[in-house]
Give the backbone structure.
Amino acid sequence: MTKRALITGGAGFIAHHLISQILKNTDWEVVTLDRLDFSGNLNRLQDVLKDFPAEERARVKIVFHDLKAAVNPLIAADIGKVDYILHLAAGSHVDRSIEYPMEFVMDNVVATCNILDYARSLDHLERFVYFGTDEVFGPAPDGILYEENDRYNSTNPYSATKAGGEELAVAFENTYNLPVYITHTMNVFGQRQHPEKFIPMCIKRIRDGESITIHSDPTKKIPGSRHYIHAEDVADALLFLLGKDVQSYTWGGAKCPKFNIVGAEELNNLQLAQIIADIQGKELKYEMVDFHSARPGHDLRYALSGEKMRAMGWVPKDIRDRIREVVEWTLANERWIKL
């Protein structure tokens, strides 16, 4: 029987890549649950679905709902039977979380509780995936790669509310035996990303001969760094995990399996901007800015260990090839870098 996957935030950046990968690599049907706000954009789905034949596009159903409210019986009937739930919907803008923390409590904690509560009412749900973030671990000192069960140290309301949602997911596994997997990933990029994000912003500003602001330490000599990863690699990792049945009874009996989805190479933001400039054959103009001191809650370095997923047999594609792919695609589809 054909599987059905419910994806929350399906019109969002990462989730629309996931839907594309599901259509390409499975025969599943997809239900996307979305409220279509700042992050959700149906034009993304339309753009990525237009290359699929009509019978493939028909496998995607869109249900409108704001998860700050419970999934009521009418919405549940619209959703229908599902085998998997992938909870990607979230507020994710750190600056906005610092200014409006309660919005993020509602979007990342209350909404997560509502979708978990709906999930526990389902018969025969095979897997609930909570899509988490590296930021729950806080800043990583040089040489440190956080593993899945390391301690948390949220430094802004965004990461704190994502940690809160994650702990609810753990609690629903422990209390209701909900089959939960938790993932952590960091700095995802790809086609159709919001133009305010670092990579599309760099592509546009370098193309136009403008200066790039590089987040740095107080000396303005050490740039911030991340393990960037393409959204298609994230989608591939999620599908890989849905094909696995992993039991985890470690760290004091914690049984909710967690997985870091990590890019292949750590790059600092100056290196990344230079790669983008080199691909375009342009000069890089930049300014180093001590952004953390100016805006507390922003961290210089995040870093996760990808060893667990690597040992299971999953690795991402080469980051430099992925960056070139996105730069060339974006320059050919410039409407996605217009504000």
